[in-house]
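Anyone? Bumping this.
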Amino acid sequence: MTTSTPLLELRGITKRFPGVLANDDVSFDVRTGEVHALLGENGAGKSTLMKILFGLYQADEGQIMLRGEEATITSPTSAIEQRVGMVHQHFMLVPTLTVVENVALGLHDARKLRPDLDAVGARIREISEEYGLEVDPDIDVWKLSVGERQRVEIIKALYRDAELLVLDEPTAVLTPQEVDDLFVILRQLTAAGTGIVFISHKLHEVLALSDRITVLRNGRVTGRTVPAETDRQQLAEMMVGREVDLAPDRPIVETGPVRLSVSGLHVTGDRGTPAVVDVDLDVRGGEILGIAGVSGNGQRELAEAIAGLRQLDRGSISIDGADTTGVTPGMARAAGLSYVPEERMKDGAVGEFDVAENLLLVDHGDSRFIRNGLFDRDQIETHAARLVEEYAVKTPTLHTPTSSLSGGNIQKLIMARELDSDPLVILAAQPTRGVDIGAAEYIHRRLVEQRGEGVAVLVISEDLDEVFALSDRIAVMFDGAVVKIFDRADATRESVGLAMTGVV
Amino acid sequence: MSDFFTLTVLVGTLASGIRTAMPYLLAALGETVGQRSGVLNLGVDGVMLLGAFGGYYTVLQTENHWLGVLVGLAIGLGMGLVYALVTIVFHAEQGISGIGIFLFGLGFSDLLFQELVGTPRPIKPLPKVEIPLLADIPHLGPAFFQHNLLTYVAFALVPLTTWMLMKTTFGMNVRAVGENPQAADSLGVSVAQTRMGAILFGNTMAGLAGAGLSLQLAIFQHNLTNGLGFIAVALVYFGAWRPRWVLAGALLYGMVTATRLRWQSLDIIPRGASDVAAMAPAIITILALVLLASRVRGPAALTKPFSRH
Ligand SMILES: Nc1ncnc2c1ncn2[C@@H]1O[C@H](COP(=O)(O)OP(=O)(O)O)[C@@H](O)[C@H]1O
Ligand SMILES: [Mg+2]
């Protein structure tokens, strides 16, 4: 058999945003029936490239070839007409509409008075059966789990006869089991001849699923390979552009006394339903306890309760032996807690404040920084300069607005502020979510360092690689409860992944 | 008090409550559709005033009610085009644009009234349409089946609006662009066109509501609506963006207003307290809003302009 023309060929795509070269002469192709992975750090330009393919952006330079012919794609509608389907990183679903309605959107002109929802529903059922995409067409989308919503997205594309399917970070929000299910579906699709672009920054997934891999860094292609000829380490280095240390060394540390103790904790969530149910946890000095779980299983509420940011219904919390049940955030800090919140731009830093001001946020009442009742600018700048230096925060000046830093640097800034206070307990929620590998590596090293100094570290993370890289013990949360606590030595990805779905 | 609890008075009050609810209901149904598409229009009261004057003046000149209604509709449609231009084409901030429309309507309707009419002159009121047979049922007949045509139309529009929102392609698009315009756009639904349609519908209904008000009262004067359009916007929140709950809100408002007027005329409310009593409907609405506010979430994209980049 001769090599046929590829289904898709992107030739020399360049895309500039004000101040950013998002894609720089990128070429990329997909053949029918294959999975071609696009791997790269946050901000590497993966989504931009695919949005160009989907008509959401226009390339400044370069060509799009579909089935050997040059294609002009000016809007999502024209992409759909040319049988390109896209499952966006942030789902493009209307939660208040039913599954059928979500699929039917845009199928009919508004001049057609009523959409033919029965026919659409019937076709959805056919597609569901053919590819094992189980979902009830008549249910409101907001009632669906994340995995089911993703299936609706795939159905939407298949309904429109997509031959080329782009999935932008499809696994970011899934449990390990859901990822396995998704891979089964994707393999069925390729077997039926669909070409798939699989975007990810998770190395083991890319290795497990793809036929070919293209690596993007700072908008440029920095590597092309196939899974058989590479490994995680090599891929990580193509992504980052230098040597990286995927798992920090964790020297053996003698554990100390219990520094953080949570017992019988019950917390109500924003919706008024129980979010944390009867949770008991003890973290000793010199130990990292990782909490694994799909987000939305009570982790955020647990963290907020410990940090004094959320009322608790029952139970008790103590930090270094002192009762901190129901205290204010300030009192929890005074007892020795440092908190790295999940939503760094909402709860961790003030975007409009400059770097120096954000570094001062928790110490603004400290007499070191006050002279004659006013802030002592010199002291504040010296303090900020030292932290920026010590924690390798990349910022043009100390007076740069924090919102203009990258996610990784904002997180390093928050870490600098939180670790500088010599805490006894560190509570870090999703410490490296959306952060580049370099910064993540650095943040992990710092957390392990704190463990070495006898600090009790509680890390909440959805990223199993992170949980495994850091933890001495792994607690799994499901539906508000800690369903199981593993010793690091007994935990496997499979056993933890299974516990994350509530099966123990 | 015992004067109030006679059958005739109760029936009269009920009928007057239903009539009073008509303009609120029309305006609020229109605003419901607009808000479902993600567009807030605080200019409803201004559009109503223009529609009210247009309808009144037409009837004053021609004595033709249906021409008056038509003019009210046309004025609403015209103002809808203006509002769509400002908010959809120019992406202006919706809250401020709406206030602008309101102030324009308030001022311009008064200017036209002063210039063209001067002193309030009554017109022929909208005729009652008695529904055959039903109108003759004792007590129920006078309460429910002896109203002007616009009142029946307003009530009929409740299920029709629900049907439009929930069953038609346009309604589905409206709900989609009000909740997640990016998603609708990615499937080729035109967010601009859909919102434009919803705005035109909403403003046309506001124009109709205005004409309905002046033709029913058979008069026009400075600021005839007296904030009625703002109450209609509040009723949309009160009704949690659902036509049948908006209807419940409009009826509640109409009934409280009618009861207050009746009590005042029967001297149940002391003279000195009449100003306080006049606030009752507003206070009840605000209380209901406060109680409901945390329970129901509105369209997620409400007040948010849409652009692709
Ligand atoms: N609409 C936009 N306007 C300006 N800059 C953008 C826009 N979209 C993306 N960028 C920038 O382009 C770069 C690539 O972003 P993106 O394609 O989203 O990366 P990835 O999907 O690989 O994480 C980033 O620096 C990002 O900040
Ligand atoms: Mg992306």
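Late reply, but here is one note on the structure posted above: Residues A 46-47, 89, 168-169 surround magnesium ion (ligand 2) (CB under 6 Å).
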